[in-house]
Every structure is written in C-alpha cells, then in structure tokens.
C-alpha cells in the first residue's frame, strides 16, 4: 500500500504513524535507533505490505499493470488504491476531514524529525510541501504520483501507460479496493494491538 493507506492504518498514533511512513527507508540495524512505538510502526508497515502482496484480490488486480510495468505492477496499484482511500467515506466524510487528517499527520511526524536521518526528513518535508496525502484525492494527484514512481524506478521511462490503465480499469480497481480494504483494516488493527502489547505477529 502507498503513503495515505499507511497513514490511515496508523490509527491516529503519531509514533506508529512515523514508523509506518519511514519504514521503506530504514535498513538493517537502523531499526535499533528508534523507540519501541516507532519500531512497532515500522513492523506494521512491513506486515501491511506482506499481507497486501499475499491477498488474492490484490494478486489478481496487479495483472492490470503487469504487462506495462512487470515487477513494479504492485507499486502502481498501491498508488491507485490511495485514490480510493482518499475518497473513502468510511475514513473521510468530506474534503475538510481529509485535509485536516493530512495536516495532523505532517505535524505528528515533524515531532520526530530529530530522530530521523536527513534522507528521511527530506522525503517527509516534500510530502508536506506538496501535500501528498491530500492530493491523492484527485486524479491529477495520482497521475503526479505515477510520474514520481517512474522517476524512482529503474528500467521504466514513462507514466503514460499507468495513467491510461488507471482510467481504463477505474471501476475494476475500485471494486478490488472495496473487496480488499476491509480485510486489510482488520488485519492491521489486530497487528498493531499485538505490537503495542509486545505480542506482535511475526513479520511475514
């Protein structure tokens, strides 16, 4: 899943949120530099990703992007799913709620900047500057995110196919999201509860 989904699945805990958003940048023994709460967020992020990759609905829906993007198909689907998270009335009743959620998330992670490496802080600064979490609500924001994903990956040089696929298979992706997200929400909530009580499920 992508940034907004991970933020939502941090359940309004600022330290879990920080760990959930920075997990991809924390390598090896670097995890030892963080508090138990942030580590729980890092582990939650990784558990979410593993659960997502193994879910049958996701595995089937990734095929939509597979021909154009191969092993990166899942990453493009993750971005597409964030559009539906942003527009999901179960999470945000209106535009103002999403805007406030994003603002709160940026403030929460800023409190942990002193603990973070420069590359992580730089990413989070850009997230706030360009309001990534809010802008997943718009088609334009998703298209920009596709472009950003292309910029960061090897062997891919355009986002045009992803944009076309997103529009062509919009209904199918939405149906997949609606089938998958309740399962992921339940799994994440259970994992976080166990993690905070030091009874976390092992990482997949």
Topology:
Elements (H helix, E strand, L loop, with lengths): L2 H6 L5 H9 L13 H19 L1 H6 L1 H7 L3 H14 L8 H16 L7 H12 L2 H4 L3 H14 L7 H9 L1 H27 L8
Helix pairs in contact: 2-3, 3-12, 5-6, 6-10
Keywords: Hydrolase, Lipid biosynthesis, Lipid metabolism
InterPro entries: ACP_PD (IPR007431)
Protein name: ACP phosphodiesterase
What can you see in these coordinates?
This protein has 204 residues and is an all-alpha fold. Helix content is 70%, strand content 0%. The protein has twelve helices and no strands. The radius of gyration is 16 Å and the shape is globular. The model has no long low-confidence stretch (mean pLDDT 93).
Total count of strands: 0
* Helix-strand topology string: HHHHHHHHHHHH
Binned strand content: under 5%
Return the average pLDDT rounded to an integer: 93
Work out the count of structural domains. 1
